[in-house]
Task: structure prediction
Amino acid sequence: EAGVTQFPSHSVIEKGQTVTLRCDPISGHDNLYWYRRVMGKEIKFLLHFVKESKQDESGMPNNRFLAERTGGTYSTLKVQPAELEDSGVYFCASSQVFQAPHGYTFGSGTRLTVV
Amino acid sequence: DQQVKQNSPSLSVQEGRISILNCDYTNSMFDYFLWYKKYPAEGPTFLISISSIKDKNEDGRFTVFLNKSAKHLSLHIVPSQPGDSAVYFCAASGIGGGTSYGKLTFGQGTILTVHP
Result:
């Protein structure tokens, strides 16, 4: 089975620009999560979708971040306008419904650099 | 307020020896703990987990120990192999106290280097 796919793998943008990250979960996985790791620190939770609904978005830093999952398939995470502190690696993960946490499968991440 | 902490940024061990990675947590609502392994340019990969009702879980060369009273867990790798060199993340989940199942709280990671 195909894994979690994230695109692009790297993105370098200027401060003030907009960037959209995409995540394609494993087919059939209703749960989709976004995480971020900044500057070698801990991996931080951003939000959790169940199908197309936002189950928990308590980790979203501010209103410059917008996540969508139309149709309950792939998800996008838009940062607009980007700031320097948004730089980091953005990970997406997916799991089946009611699967224990170890059922997470992470994508390889998108490394975002804001200059 | 960081609820999961890995206080050792790095650890270096000789091949064949034991690697011990440590993790401390503060949120008493955590009841499930996991270790993830991460290679460069890849996403974290699940390694081993433990429920709070247990104090030990073993899977091959990997053993996780949980001390609930001390809010401490550790990962033992025996024997260590050069291929184990990676970043190891401790993570926790639970219900209540600002956490929920599905939402993992990670530590900062420990870089393990196993020398041949």
Notes: Chain B is about 0% helix and 55% strand.
